[in-house]
User: Which sequence fits this backbone?
């Protein structure tokens, strides 16, 4: 019984790590409302995400992934989001990244992400 639980926890941890790896070291281009619709880039490192506009980083956020849920929190930047944690669902389908707000106390960030897909940038 205990061995089965350990295997389940290991598999869940591996799935969560694999989901985060899908985002880590990736970059995506799409439209965000900042506040008007503009083409931006989302660049993920191991544990942070940068939102850039015309080559300038506007916001740096920490992120974590659990299954299809993405949690983000402002580290630095221009938005008034401060310490609010945003919860989003996301999906990667081929070279498309979809993000949808679930709960975000920062109205400006929640309004920034539209339902259109972001396209993977070739590296």
Assistant:
């Amino acid at each position: 019984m205990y061995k089965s639980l350990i295997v389940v926890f290991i598999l869940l941890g591996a799935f969560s790590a694999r989901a985060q790896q899908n985002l880590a070291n990736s970059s995506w281009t799409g439209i965000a409302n900042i506040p008007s619709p503009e083409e931006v880039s989302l660049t993920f490192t191991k544990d942070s995400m940068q939102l850039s506009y015309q080559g300038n980083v506007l916001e740096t956020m920490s992120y974590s992934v659990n299954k299809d849920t993405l949690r983000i929190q402002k580290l630095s930047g221009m938005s008034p989001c401060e310490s609010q944690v945003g919860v989003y669902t996301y999906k990667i389908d081929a070279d498309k990244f979809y993000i949808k707000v679930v709960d975000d106390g920062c109205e400006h960030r929640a309004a920034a992400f539209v339902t259109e897909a972001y396209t993977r940038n070739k590296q």
In short: The longest strand covers residues 56-66.
